[in-house]
Design goal:
Shape: globular
Oligomer: single chain
Radius of gyration: 17 Å
Strand content: under 5%
Largest sheet: none
Number of helices: 2
Order of helices and strands: HH
């Protein structure tokens, strides 16, 4: 786990706390993963890794709920768009369109 405040982290089995550059964290994480995937669950760290060319794949999950506050996924004002190639499906250039209606309390 990459953190600016390792002193506040509570030890946990199987968890390593790092306070370093994101590229160094990726190197350490890949070494610890021993050939398995290294997953990033942070939009700000994910954006930094995309900018440095350190992302092999982006997996996007869509849940039918709108969240309130938070950090936008891969927000980068003034930055260049990141084009993605579809890894599963028939048409790698197709957009995925989903339609939902708000659910009101009954």
């Amino acid at each position: 786990m990459l953190t600016h405040h390792p002193q506040d982290a509570h030890p946990a089995d199987g968890v390593m706390f790092l306070s370093c550059d994101v590229a160094e964290a990726v190197r350490i994480g890949l070494e610890a993963a021993r050939g398995k995937n290294l997953e990033v669950f942070s939009p700000s760290i994910g954006r930094q890794l995309l900018d440095r060319g350190l992302v092999d794949e982006v997996e996007v999950h869509v849940a039918p709920v709108l969240l309130g506050d938070g950090i936008r996924l891969f927000d980068h004002p003034g930055g260049a768009p990141v084009r993605l190639a579809l890894l599963n499906g028939d048409d790698p250039t197709a957009a995925v369109n989903l339609r939902y209606s708000p659910v009101t309390s009954a």
